[in-house]
Amino acid sequence: MPAAVAVAASGGRDSTALLHATARAARAHGIQVHALHVHHGLVPSADAWLEHLRTQCARWARAGLPLHFHATRLGGAPQRGDSIEAWARRERYAALAAMAHAAGCGLVLLAQHRRDQAETLLLQALRGGGLQALAAMPARAERDGIVWVRPWLEQPREAIEAYLRRHRLRWVDDESNDDGAYARNRLRHAVWPALVAAFPDAEAQLAAAARRSAEDVAALQAGVEADLATLGGEGGLDTAAWTELPAARRTAALRGWLRALLPLPVPDTLVRRLATELPGAQAARWPAPGGELRLHDGRLRFAASAPEIPPPGESTLDLAHAGCHHLPGWGGCLDVVAVGEGGVAAARLRRATLRPRRGGEQFQLGARTLPRCLKKQYQARRIPAWARGGPLVFGDGQLLFAPGLGLDARCIAPPGEPQFTLHWHTDGA
């Protein structure tokens, strides 16, 4: 049993009832209760809510309830393109987690009830959400080192109102709940009364549908994790093995793989596009939130966006010894490996010249082939554009090495002579 538990307390009717009920139950078990209040600063009465809750908690504590009050005022404002609701929710949970950690609480109780769950399912469906969205709010979740629990998710609102009347509790009303600019308010005032009039059991049935969706999501996730165990890994998604899965499993696995990689929610349009274009593709790239997806050698990988930095100018470097030569300006390193044959003579690498492509460079792939321009060699070998970065390496004016292609055949040293081969690795590869 925990020594302390926290309750997210807005001062509204639901969280007031939950805070009071939790404190009464905790008193009998010697558990301390911490009321966590977030001052959003979005409505003029926010200061009054904070003072109401502070005074209420102090009064209950004097009456013998094991209560402690904490409050945080949010700073900043939603960025352009970010909805007020999304910003407030994100910042609220971050503030609640910070206060819970400071108070030594690993468990935070949230006051959403059955009608909130039913409303959430409807809103998610109206937004075109999939199965995970239709699962609505989880009864229990772990994130930020905190266990978040909604103990009243199966309770009707009428039961909470009855508790408030029985204990003569006072709460504050959020005037923003009447603002039709918010989707939940429109649903609550314009749609819900008509829905319940036509379907009296709507609340219970919608909440049950959310619960069944959550069970289905858990089962689906187990299958996705099993598929990804064979498809994924640090080398990226194995697209050949992925293509062999049934279509429904392909989509689910792809969405699960992307969800673990992308810094933002996975756009359904991206999942659908990949599901259509990946089968049969050889080398391609797709824009994605925070970067791009790259397909090469049968592996799909995510590359985070990096600021555009012009390549460095020409420089000279001693590459006549084995090791990894990190080149920060180029965003990677040249790996120099000693070999018995098939390498370039060490003497030609002592004053190697590194420079970016300028156009017109000639490169010979094999001893029995003719030199061709570097661009055509890349195209013939189907080397993707992102694998062509890094410096060209010259020795005595002769092109020795090109990233993605390797050593020029004209510079290969005879066996028995000290020699090295080169490999280019981008940072993070």
UniProtKB/TrEMBL annotation:
Binding site for ATP: S10, G11, G12, R13, D14, S15
Regions annotated as coiled coil: none
Subcellular location: Cytoplasm
Pfam families according to UniProt: ATP_bind_3, TilS, TilS_C
Catalytic activity: cytidine(34) in tRNA(Ile2) + L-lysine + ATP = lysidine(34) in tRNA(Ile2) + AMP + diphosphate + H(+)
UniProt-listed Enzyme Commission number(s): 6.3.4.19
InterPro entries on file: Lysidine-tRNA-synth_C, Rossmann-like_a/b/a_fold, TilS/TtcA_N, tRNA_Ile_lys_synt, tRNA_Ile_lys_synt_N, tRNA_Ile_lys_synt_subst-bd
UniProt KW Ribosomal protein keyword: no
Gene3D superfamilies recorded: HUPs
Boundaries of every Lysidine-tRNA(Ile) synthetase C-terminal domain copy: 352-424
Keywords carried by this UniProt record: ATP-binding, Cytoplasm, Ligase, Nucleotide-binding, tRNA processing
Keyword check for Cytoplasm: yes
Summary of the function given for this chain in its UniProt record: Ligates lysine onto the cytidine present at position 34 of the AUA codon-specific tRNA(Ile) that contains the anticodon CAU, in an ATP-dependent manner. Cytidine is converted to lysidine, thus changing the amino acid specificity of the tRNA from methionine to isoleucine.
Domain notes: The N-terminal region contains the highly conserved SGGXDS motif, predicted to be a P-loop motif involved in ATP binding.
Family classification: Belongs to the tRNA(Ile)-lysidine synthase family.
Identification of the protein by name: tRNA(Ile)-lysidine synthase
Organism of origin: Rubrivivax gelatinosus (Rhodocyclus gelatinosus)
